[in-house]
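Researcher: Next sequence.
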Amino acid sequence: MELHAKAIKFGDDINTDYIISGKYKFKSADMEAMAVHAMEDVDPEYYAKAKPNGAFLVAGKNFGMGAAASRLRWC
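Model: Next structure:
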């Protein structure tokens, strides 16, 4: 199988708060409504870039590992 799409590249340490900000996590169960806000803290144009024809999200190490807020309680 061959897949063709553009790749949108992010660096290391993209935690779950960057994937979808905590301010949206519990506001909707509608995945399309949530998708509009995906990655917006790292790239506010991500949805506009990815939505028209789809895209591959490429990230470095620690992608999706924890949330920044969850680590604060240990500081």
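Model: The CA atoms of residues 23 and 31 lie 15 Å apart. Residues 31-35 form the longest helix (5 residues).
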